[in-house]
């Protein structure tokens, strides 16, 4: 039997109940979609008591499928005003799976100004613990305190002062397997603010004394399919730049072809991109005692994470990723990898989305508040968020709020959420994903770069985005996307996994339906929340301005965007 | 000799990365990283990059974003 925790912040009760049967064959993004459409009024105040914050594991959590212990966080987003699923690696989902817990629901709002943690102990008991001594504490100090008290067999899922201050760019940080660094981020959409609005500082999850045993309907069927899929991943990662280097490797591709955003999505090339690329990164790791090939969760074969050290060889940050580097780097005209690493550390500690924060810095540069390329000034602005100055608090409201305040004419947001590290004129399918995904401008929802014939052309871009968006919906319900990419030749076997674990036919329609139903449910939520087709568009400047690197504009016909989900 | 994937290509003076790709039937695509003895070669220089005897090339296609 699997369980859910229903935690009510209003009366501070936690109930451990059997998981609803309807949720057994759901997990991650698919579970969040079905839960929210049934239990949260789409027009509710995202920071009010009507919103629920949910944490869940994947459909295959607790099995031997590599990367299946991924966590999804969901709720109505205070940034987009629509449905949000934000997924994250780290140790927490693995421990929840060992506890037999698929879903944690946080409802209501604390009646007082007290702050709480939700603790799940080694016996499987869960309760709220008063945490007023942690008010204003940021994620590194919090994680160190908890690990110091309970040891290494524990995970933290926490907010920093950004979440406590209800910043719309607030993330939820999960501690990494082994290191305990709070560097894995459920970053997008401001769910950290939802957590803060409820008075919840953290989940603290202990490793159970007795591991929950999953009940397979046909364990041989499951294991056979699982072995084949895991073997595909093991083989694929040998030549995967994310395994061999890290996601920073993407800079080498995007920097050369105009997809890398430069100077607030000017569409130009950045000649110094290699200073923040793979070779510089590997050289810094090697000379300073850092490491790559780190798994953020037990059993991960991709191992894309890293530990990055400063010039003196001291630990600086981990989970140092392409998005952060691209957007704090070339998109701000900065070519200093160490400065960007400091920004990454600060964002993880304070608990903000690096994509949102970096785009905010870029609009500050575009409007002349600080000079292009001034990494010290950029760090000073991030410190304003840390200190909670007036401008820092405004930055916490996101890129669009700052852009409007400063009179910026080029604000790169969709559904109020900042665009990720791929210029949509030069990967048009990705641009279609940004525009039409119910998640807002989210690259993980369907990155078409390198997949859709000519990235700058118009042919089949909507087709590629449609297929990927549906695939990402079921992939985000099952595992990490980086592992999924290698399993593609064996995709039909996902149906064998479902049948082996939950019974029934090994029918791929169960998988495909999960993807289609999830995305249509998310769109229904957003429509009920008040979104229209006007929200499925890119900012105007992408349609008007040619990218100097390629000559391309975003010239996809509105009709293609309107019908993309007409299945 | 030049090592690439699991193949050995005979070395000859002036052989370039583009020559090797042609011999193994690969296309140079911007989303495939090429490393030479562990270091990434810039995409813009791949076509004319001259190799030395004993060099090892690896092709690392980028198939997702992060």
TrEMBL record, chain A:
Instruction: Keywords in alphabetical order, please.
Output: 4Fe-4S, Iron, Iron-sulfur, Metal-binding, Oxidoreductase
The family classification in the record reads:
Belongs to the AOR/FOR family.
- The scientific name of the source species is Anoxynatronum buryatiense
Q: Where is the signal peptide?
A: none
Organism classification, top ranks? Bacteria, Bacillati, Bacillota, Clostridia, Eubacteriales
Q: Name one GO molecular function term.
A: metal ion binding
Question: What protein is this chain from?
Answer: Aldehyde:ferredoxin oxidoreductase
Keyword Thylakoid recorded: no
Database matches in InterPro entries: Ald_Fedxn_OxRdtase_dom2, Ald_Fedxn_OxRdtase_dom3, Ald_Fedxn_OxRdtase_N, Ald_Fedxn_OxRdtase_N_sf, OxRdtase_Ald_Fedxn_C, Tungsten_al_ferr_oxy-like_C, W-dependent_AOR
Q: Which residues form the Aldehyde ferredoxin oxidoreductase N-terminal domain?
A: 3-210
Which cofactor(s) are needed, names only? tungstopterin; [4Fe-4S] cluster
* Highest taxon above the source species: Bacteria
Automatic annotation (TrEMBL), chain B:
Instruction: Enumerate the Pfam families for this protein.
Output: ThiS
Q: Which Gene3D superfamilies match?
A: 3.10.20.30
Q: What is this protein called?
A: Sulfur carrier protein
Lineage at the top is:
Bacteria, Bacillati, Bacillota, Clostridia, Eubacteriales
């Amino acid at each position: 039997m699997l369980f859910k925790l229903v935690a009510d912040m209003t009366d501070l009760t936690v109930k451990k109940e059997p998981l609803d049967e309807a949720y057994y064959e759901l997990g991650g993004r698919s579970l969040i979609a079905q839960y929210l459409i049934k239990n949260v009024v789409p027009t509710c105040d995202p920071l009010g008591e009507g919103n629920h914050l949910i944490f869940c594991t994947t459909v295959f959590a607790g099995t031997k499928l590599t990367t299946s212990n991924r966590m999804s966080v969901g709720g109505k987003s205070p940034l987009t005003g629509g449905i949000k699923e934000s997924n994250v690696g780290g140790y927490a989902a693995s421990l929840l799976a060992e506890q037999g817990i698929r879903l944690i629901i946080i409802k209501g709002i604390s009646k007082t100004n007290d702050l709480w943690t939700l603790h799940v102990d080694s016996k499987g008991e869960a309760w709220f613990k008063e945490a007023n001594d942690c008010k204003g504490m940021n994620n590194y100090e919090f994680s160190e305190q908890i690990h110091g008290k309970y040891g290494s067999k524990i995970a933290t899922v926490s907010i920093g002062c950004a979440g406590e201050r209800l910043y719309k760019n607030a993330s939820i940080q999960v501690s990494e397997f082994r290191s305990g660094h709070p560097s894995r981020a459920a970053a997008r959409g401001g769910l950290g603010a939802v957590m803060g609005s409820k008075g919840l500082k953290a989940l603290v999850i202990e490793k159970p004394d007795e591991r929950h045993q999953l009940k397979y309907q046909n364990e041989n069927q499951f294991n056979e399919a699982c072995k084949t899929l895991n073997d595909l991943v093991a083989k694929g990662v040998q030549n995967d730049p994310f395994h061999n280097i890290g996601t920073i490797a993407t800079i080498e591709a995007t920097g050369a072809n105009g997809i890398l955003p430069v100077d607030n999505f000017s569409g130009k090339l950045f000649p110094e991109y290699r200073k923040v690329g793979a070779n510089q990164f590997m050289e810094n790791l090697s000379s300073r005692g850092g490491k790559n090939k780190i798994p953020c969760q037990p059993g991960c074969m991709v191992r894309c994470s890293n530990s990055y050290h400063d010039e003196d060889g001291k630990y600086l940050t981990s989970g140092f990723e392409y998005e952060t580097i691209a957007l704090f780097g070339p998109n701000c005209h900065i070519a200093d990898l160490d400065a960007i690493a400091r920004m990454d550390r600060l964002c993880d500690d304070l608990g903000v989305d690096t994509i949102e924060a970096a785009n905010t810095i870029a609009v500050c540069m575009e409007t002349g508040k600080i000079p292009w390329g001034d990494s010290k000034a950029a760090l000073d602005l991030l410190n304003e968020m840390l200190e909670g100055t007036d401008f820092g608090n405004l930055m916490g409201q996101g890129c669009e709020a700052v852009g409007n305040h400063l009179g910026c004419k080029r604000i790169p947001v969709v559904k109020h959420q900042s665009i990720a590290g791929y210029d949509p004129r030069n990967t048009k399918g990705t641009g279609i994903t940004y525009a039409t995904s119910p998640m807002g401008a989210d690259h993980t929802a369907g990155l078409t770069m390198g997949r859709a014939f000519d990235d700058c052309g118009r042919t089949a871009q909507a087709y590629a985005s449609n297929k990927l968006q549906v695939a990402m919906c079921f992939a985000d319900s099952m595992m990490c996307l980086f592992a999924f990419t290698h399993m593609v030749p064996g995709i039909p076997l996902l149906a064998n996994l479902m049948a082996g674990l939950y019974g029934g036919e090994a029918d791929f329609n169960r998988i495909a339906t999960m993807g289609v139903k999830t995305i249509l449910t998310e769109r229904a939520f957003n429509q009920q929340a008040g979104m229209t087709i006007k929200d499925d568009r890119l900012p105007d400047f992408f349609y008007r301005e040619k990218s100097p690197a390629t000559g391309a504009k975003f010239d996809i016909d509105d009709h293609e965007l309107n019908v993309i989900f007409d299945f | 000799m030049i090592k690439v994937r699991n193949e050995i290509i005979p070395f000859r003076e002036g052989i370039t990365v583009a020559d090797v790709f042609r011999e193994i039937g690969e296309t140079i695509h911007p989303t495939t990283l090429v490393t030479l003895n562990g270091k990434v070669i810039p995409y813009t220089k791949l076509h004319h990059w001259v190799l030395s005897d004993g060099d090892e090339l690896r092709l690392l296609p980028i198939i997702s974003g992060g």
